[in-house]
Amino acid sequence: MSTIRITLYLGESGLTAWLIKGINQRLRDIQGAAELIKIDTLQRVNVQHQLAALSLAFKPFDLCQIFLIGENLQTQVEALKLYLQQYCVLVTDTYTATIHSSSPMYNDNFQFHHFSVPNKMSAKHRYHIMPFAKDATIVDKARILKLIAKMASIKHYKKIEVQLIQREQLSSTDMAGGIALPHIVSEYIDQPMMICLTSKTVIDWQSAHGGVTHIVALLLPKPCTKEAILAVRHLAVNLLNADKKQFITYHYMGDQLQAILACFMRPTEQPIEQSP
Amino acid sequence: MRMVAVTACPTGIAHTYMAAEALIKSAASFGIQIQVETQGAMGIENQLTHQDIHQADLILIASDINIENAERFQQYQVINTTIVEVLTDPNKVIQDCIKQTS
Predict the structure, then answer these.
(1) Nearest to A229 among B9, B18, B41 (CB)
(2) What is the CATH number of the domain that holds B81?
């Protein structure tokens, strides 16, 4: 049994009846199940139930995900992706070391970087960031904070690192559920920045919550725009929701994380109550 | 029962608002009417008036820093807690508040 997640932005027509019908045609021989997820609210329906899918009230350019679980999915998935590419924007599901996108669908206020912790630690990290580390495979909180600071600004990284450490000393930014949200407002930051690190192995974030796999560092300049502060605020409040935290931790690819986190940085719409 | 609270944290961009949201949800689950003032990077929002404070049965300050306009609370019984405690278990914080005032 395997699972596949296809993350996509709807086109300007939103989720229409003909689009759902087209999706179902590509999935009719699937040996398993397919769910359609509205990411901002995490409402989910069986994609084969057309009326239920329409009731999610998708708007044009909304972010959604088709979650497939079953056997031998690859053929149907390829056909489905080819179909969806005609009407939607697919979010790529390959590893990208660093993303700096200015796509209007993402949050324009934030520069976004993502990398996988083990890759970073075993390559560039060893030579450029921690030259004196005896064992580059050991990943700890102090190293990661240093890495975030260096990603943010080579010129001011020592000061930024101190600010990140000072914030963590007040209380751990472990949000529980595998996510840490280190954040500072700093005079050494030029523009709002989100640096996202993911690790397949749990990293001790020095809290009672049991470690993290996803570190979402938010670094804001001082002074900062209202839009950027609001974006962080919306994301933080969304992280109170255990389901949303869990959903984030299913993803390890930069483009997907950027799309999902940017979605959670917008004001959350309340789900429409379904009539029984 | 009527409750007022203030939330504040050093950075003021995340935990202040998370704590406010957590308190609002938790208070609602106990049937408590709550008004939360946030003191964050956006300044003071939902500012509590003297009347709001006077009419409250419970006053909670959840903060890791010295809050602004603290003198408003001088003549009242105030329960102090940290942001971490609110985020870790907001229901326990509300329950403790109820116990201390009953």
Answers:
(1) B41
(2) 3.40.50.2300
